[in-house]
Amino acid sequence: MVYSSRGLALLLALSIGLITTLFLSLFDSVKTTALVVTSIISFSVSYLSVFVVLEFLIFREISSLHKIMGKLKKRELAKIEKSNPTLNPLRKINQEIFSFAELKQKEIDELKKTEAFRREFIADVSHELKTPIFAAQGFVHTLLDGAIDDESVRIKFLEKAAKSLDGLDMLVQDLLTLSQIETGQIKMQFENIDLNKLTEEVFEQFERKAAKKNITLVLDASNDVFAYADYQRITQVLTNLVSNGINYSFEGGNVKVILEQTKKYAIVRVEDQGEGIPPEHRTRIFERFYRVDKSRSREKGGTGLGLAIVKHILDGHNTKAEVESTPGKGSTFSFKLPRFRPDDEESD
Ligand SMILES: Nc1ncnc2c1ncn2[C@@H]1O[C@H](COP(=O)(O)OP(=O)(O)O)[C@@H](O)[C@H]1O
Ligand SMILES: [Mg+2]
Questions:
Q1: Which CATH class is domain 190-338?
Q2: Residues 41, 42, 47, 48: is their CA dihedral positive or negative?
Q3: Digit-coded pLDDT (tens) for 149-176
């Protein structure tokens, strides 16, 4: 009772009424009726004012503070109603607590997501590492267990073990690149780069691989196309896209790099006439280790990280790759880069 606003108001009003009446009774000239009226008036006025102050300014706010705390404990943030701006300091505290809790909850959610992502990534990496290690281990042990004396298989087994180890090396290199880009260890070195020269250099790397599948590498550029970008990183992007173009193409087609330019941008397109990508996979192929066909990708020496690296590098250039694809007919990956330094006034 004493801890409710009504009880406290009653106690205070009784004391105020009593003190006033006692004080007035000290004067002989004050009549009894006046004393009674004064005590009634002082009691009612004090009761009302104390009650209003306690109930509306303090108790109600404190109990709503309690409710908020309870909901926070149960993580029911969405159920908390936001109150309107006010001058009441207690309500302000309420609002502050709410905003603080909301912020913390967001941080916690973010951390949980990162943690889940990290766990999943470690599981994926372990799995990806396991595959080539197991394969190499298998061949080496078979050789040690006697196959080394069998001339018909020993070279074949050694070659297979070496191929698995090469795959492992590529995977580790891709993982390193990805983590270096993510941790900001690799800073983009922006400069004016010649995209025709860059494409020709990339084609040189793939001459043998393309010839094996009877694929022709075509550079389609009507004039010299320059961009303001990181030469080495864009080489890496094009290497991955051309490599995919060859890997996921049928024998005998073309992989074409088309260079175009608009007033502000250089546009790079990598076109193949390969198997294409079904629509449901198109948004996911840039995720780490996501492959449309896992075994097929591995068999072609893919790490599943190529497009994730492409995405990261293009992010660093404030751009992104677009994909168009018709299953069975081919795919086109394209991205644009600024032609000039952002502060240059040049135009064509
Ligand atoms: N040009 C392409 N044509 C068809 N599928 C492609 C092409 N490029 C990428 N993909 C699909 O996207 C997946 C992810 O590509 P990527 O990140 O380069 O990994 P990887 O090539 O090592 O498997 C590939 O496994 C493949 O399924
Ligand atoms: Mg690839």
A1: alpha beta
A2: positive
A3: 988 889 999 999 999 999 999 999 999 9
